[in-house]
Amino acid sequence: MSSETDDSKKNNARTCLIAAASKLFARQGKDKTSTRDIAEESKVNISMISYHFGGKEGLYKQVITDFALNVEKNADQIIGDFAKAPLDKNSFVQRMSRIIEHMIKTRIENPEISVLLAREKIEGLPLSRDVYEKIIYPLVKNFLTLFEQAQKQKIIRDDINGAAYFIMLTEGLWGLFEIAACKTKILDHCHQVLSDPKELKNQMLRIYVEGILL
Question: Number of structural domains, the chain?
Answer without folding.
Answer: 2
